[in-house]
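Title: Comparing notes on inverse folding

I've been comparing how different people in this forum approach sequence design from structure. To keep things fair, I'm posting one structure and asking everyone to reply with a full sequence. Here's the target:
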């Protein structure tokens, strides 16, 4: 979801990202961003102000995920009824 939110043009600050991803904790978002930066999918820019301003954007490698992620999203939407039925039928589901 972070990659999808960052797909918009420009950079986003941490607080802007957090506001656009419902239910994400600060810790989870921070860990996810650290991993995406380490993988080369996201670039991190720090402005040396007080307090520091940190912005994130997709790298060209991260941008290249747009088509595969769109295909996965389309597949999930197409099969949502089947997925929900399987979850309902799974042992321990209720």
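Reply #1:
Here's my take.
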């Amino acid at each position: 979801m972070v990659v999808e939110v960052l797909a918009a043009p420009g950079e986003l600050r941490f607080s802007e990202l957090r506001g656009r991803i419902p239910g994400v904790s600060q810790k989870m978002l921070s860990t996810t961003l650290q991993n995406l930066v380490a993988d080369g999918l996201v670039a991190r820019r720090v402005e040396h102000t007080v307090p520091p301003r940190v912005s994130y954007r997709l790298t060209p490698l991260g941008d290249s995920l747009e088509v595969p992620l769109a295909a996965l999203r389309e597949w999930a939407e197409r099969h949502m009824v089947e997925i929900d039925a399987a979850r309902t039928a799974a042992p321990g589901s209720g």
